[in-house]
Amino acid sequence: NEDLVKKGVGGIDKSLSKFVEKGVIAAAKKDETMARINGTTKLEDLAGVDIVIEAIIENLQIKRETYAKLDSICKPEAIFASNTSSLSITEMMTATSAERQRRFLGMHFFNPVPLMKLVEVVRTILTDDEIYSEALIFTESLDKTVVRANDKPGFIVNRLLVPYMLDGIRVLEEGLASTVDIDNGMKLGCNHPMGPLTLADFVGLDTTFYIANI
Q: 81 has which bridge partners?
């Protein structure tokens, strides 16, 4: 709805203002960036875009329904990319036409996106080589570091990270150590910025549970 669009754009404005305060970007750069952002509640407004990067909650059915609508709205040459952290790109792409499936891939940005450099660019068995190359070039143009992955549950990072977080919870469950000592052990022993339990809270226990099941 319109209120959430305004809240989202306002959040971007607030984030950029902090960068201006810290001297990371100039005020003019912030104004230039905000001028390029348009909010909408209508999928029809995406008809002319070159790329759609979808970041809907991790619900496969809602994503598939949205892609089916976008497939009939967007121009044939538009690329579709999902920001999912773990869901099957292949299952999403089958909601679209055979031609669009060649132009469908994953583009997983890491949170918080303005600060994190990494993007997993995920290809399916049908992703066209030229389209995949275009996606890599586009992602790097955003000053991001790309890692390439095939379409398997969790891709690279969550395939390794989520079992680690779950083992942190099991260590606590077994009474091996306290939450503070578990987190400090991984922060100081492996130089992680935060421990597995703090990270699980940061991601959200509901989201962590959902990804774990995937």
A: 53, 105
Q: What was the pLDDT predicted at 58?
A: 87
Rg of the chain in Å (alpha carbons) = 19
Checking if the pLDDT of 112 tops 90, the result is: no
Arithmetic mean of pLDDT, 184-213:
94
For 54-74, how does the pLDDT look when each residue is reduced to its tens digit (9 = 90+)? 999 889 999 999 999 999 999
Which residue matches tokens 């549970």? Answer: 209
Average pLDDT over residues 36-43: 96
Question: CA dihedral defined by 106, 107, 112, 115, rounded to 10 degrees?
Answer: 160
Question: Dihedral of the CA atoms 201, 153, 59, 212 (nearest 10)?
Answer: -30
Helical ranges in the chain per DSSP H = 2-21, 27-35, 60-73, 89-93, 98-101, 129-141, 157-173, 179-190, 196-203, 205-213
Q: Which residues contact 11 (CB under 8 A, 6 or more apart)?
A: none
Tell me whether strands 118-123 and 104-109 are parallel, antiparallel or unpaired. Answer: antiparallel
Q: In what order do the strands lie in the sheet with 104-109?
A: 51-54, 79-82, 104-109, 118-123, 145-150
Q: Can you say how many angstroms the Cα of residue 142 is from the centroid of all Cα atoms in its chain?
A: 14
Q: Which one is catalytic: 30, 100, 102, 108?
A: 108
108 is catalytic: yes
Q: Where are the beta strands (DSSP E) in 78-123?
A: 79-82, 104-109, 118-123
